[in-house]
Amino acid sequence: MLTFVLGVFLCTSIVAYFVIRDTVRETIENQAVAFAEIATVQATTARSVYAKEVAEKLRQDGFGPSVDYAHMKGYVPIPAQFLKMLGQASNTNTSHLFQYKPVSKWNLDAGQGLGDDFLRWAWPQIEQQDKANPDGPIAWKPIWRFEQQQGQRVLRYLSADAATQPSCIACHNAYESKPEIVERRKSQHIQAGKQWHQYQLLGAISITIPLSKVETLAVARVQRTSILIFGILFASLILAIWFSRRLVKQEVSLQEVERELLRSEKEMQDAKELLLAKQDVERAFSELSAYLQAIDQHAIVSVATPDGRIIQVNQKFCEVSGYSEQELIGQDHNIVNSGTHPSSFFSEMWQTIARGDIWSGEICNRTKSGALYWVDSSIVPLKDQDGKIVRYISIRLDITGRKKTELHMAHLANHDALTGLPNRYLLQDRFKAILARCRRSNMQTAVIFVDLDKFKPINDTLGHKVGDLLLIEVSQRLRSGIREVDTVSRHGGDEFIILLADIANIEDAAMLAQKLLHSLIEPYQIMGHELSISASMGISIFPQDGDDMEGLLKHSDLAMYYAKRNGGNNCQFYTPDMHK
Ligand SMILES: Nc1nc2c(ncn2[C@@H]2O[C@H](COP(=O)(O)OP(=O)(O)OP(=O)(O)O)[C@@H](O)[C@H]2O)c(=O)[nH]1
């Protein structure tokens, strides 16, 4: 950049120098031309004054101008000679500042003819102007050029000298008519006998002004001035560059300060954000710690390997399960398996967590002492960066209390409040399950409708409470008289339904009914009373006596009615003719 600026400055300086130098030269040339014009006017004016004030005065006094004035007392040079003398004197007196002399192509003096190239070149151009107006004044234009003379530059200037004064014309014409002049001209092959008219070209004044000295002085001055100016400009430029560099440096340092400020501001902003983030993290960590503490206090937490081996348990796990931490670590969760859930339950759970999903559900576990407890579990698979499961985190809430309540509520909904036997709703479910199984396996099912005989009098005589206790006792005897897979439910009042699943033949049902009749008829000790009661039973068999619950109940009821009509304490199988 600096080199470029200096280069431009140098080129501009050189061009400026030559422009100034040429301008000065041109000015000098113009001045020289103007001076030549002035010198011409001065010379011709001096000649006119001389002709009028000197030559004419002497003529009036009886003397006058004469070419031979040197040998004639009282005579002076003619105006043309005066002009020539004036030129010669000027040349000497002005130390060759300029030279001028009258010239013409008719002049017989060798020094005043067309003696060099310039005069021979310029004279025809002056002569050409002479033809512009043969009878009147002519606006003469000088002819000039610059040329080299002996190694010096000079202005050559030629200005027309027209015939203005009649006395001059008369004198010149008379001079030309002289025989010796005619003779001289002929000998020199110059036109003789020329006669001049007013306004016509009489001769010319040649002026030579040397320029070299002035030009040398001017160029030297220009050089000095240029050097001074260029020095000042160069110094200014260097100063400007120095200042601009300093400014640039200052600007750069300002920019650096600005950048530094921005950086500091950003760092402060970052630090602020970091602080806020740290505060957020601390707050989140604090909240998380609180959550973890809360979870740890209230939840049963364990961590297991992908193959289900326990590697970490919390205190709550130990408290609820009854196992110590040492007993649990290294085991799998089968250690608390209660056997309540089918194997499909755990298969589904393992499938879910093995594919990376969270499994949630309620599990019934067993403590070390054998008690059941319910937990609401969520098992979260923990994955590494590659998505591979590395841990299972189990969080369980002990819901045994709620579960017991739910089970109790469910029990109440499905059991008779007085006897605890399944009620109609549960019987309905059992019916559906057993009938479906029997249909699949072509097995038979027996439905025994039981109605106590003469229960109302007990109620009426001993009170409702005794009646209730008797109903409870009857329920227990019926319950204890059947298999685990069979169902006895209270149908209402003193009526019971017994559902015998999968009987091999109807005799089995008959035998069981007889056994129950004998059981029921045994005396009861209730509130200090020994009571006796019997029952009437009707039996219907699936599938021959009915295809569904309604049909089977209806037909067993009808058969029971027949048993009751038969005196009670007996059992009747349903037969279609009972409808008659
Ligand atoms: N204590 C008590 N009595 C009930 C209950 N539910 C119904 N009963 C009574 O049981 C009796 C049943 O009536 P029935 O079966 O007609 O009377 P029964 O004397 O057994 O008549 P038979 O069956 O023809 O022998 C009614 O008196 C009901 O009030 C109950 O929950 N508790």
Automatic annotation (TrEMBL):
InterPro entries: DGC-Regulatory_Protein, GGDEF_dom, Nucleotide_cyclase, PAC, PAS, PAS-assoc_C, PAS-like_dom_sf, Rev_trsase/Diguanyl_cyclase. PROSITE patterns: GGDEF, PAC, PAS. Gene3D superfamilies: 3.30.70.270, PAS domain. Residues 359-411 form the PAC domain. SUPFAM superfamilies: Nucleotide cyclase, PYP-like sensor domain (PAS domain). One of its GO terms (molecular function) is catalytic activity. The chain crosses the membrane at residues 225-243. Residues 247-274 form a coiled coil. The keyword Cell inner membrane does not apply. The keyword Transmembrane applies. Residues 443-576 form the GGDEF domain. CDD domains: GGDEF (cd01949), PAS (cd00130). Keywords: Coiled coil, Membrane, Transmembrane, Transmembrane helix. It holds the Pfam family GGDEF. Residues 301-344 form the PAS domain. It comes from the Bacteria. PANTHER family: DIGUANYLATE CYCLASE DGCT-RELATED (PTHR46663), SLL0267 PROTEIN (PTHR46663:SF3). NCBIfam families: GGDEF (TIGR00254), sensory_box (TIGR00229). This is Putative signaling protein. It comes from Ferriphaselus amnicola.
